[in-house]
Amino acid sequence: MTGTRDNELEGGWKSRTIAYADMSPGCKRLGVVDGATHFNFAGIGLAAKTEELTIGATSSFLNNLRNGACGTPVPVRGISMEAK
Question: CA 43, CA 20: separation in Å to the nearest integer?
């Protein structure tokens, strides 16, 4: 999980997706929350929206795993989900 404003010192938010890009396929997800900063993930600032979207995406993923399938991410406004 990352946010479109989750910038690191060098490279911007897309640099936070490198680890996902390098993973082999198989029941993995990448979630990008629109407008979320690093601090929002830590519970600071406008964290309620980020928390709601993160919990929803994580719960959906885990529920699919419990049912024995990876499933396909359900589109939700405010978060982009990628699967591999």
Answer: 23
Residue type, 62: L
Q: Nearest-CA neighbor of 31 among 44, 22, 41?
A: 41
pLDDT tens digit sequence for 34-71: 999 989 998 888 799 999 999 999 999 999 999 999 98
Calpha distance 83→42 (Å, rounded) = 24
The Cα 19–Cα 13 span in angstroms is: 12
Q: Which amino acid, 2?
A: T
Place of tokens 């959906």: 60
Give dist(CA 1, CA 52) in Å, integer.
13
Q: Which residues pair with 39 in a beta bridge?
A: none
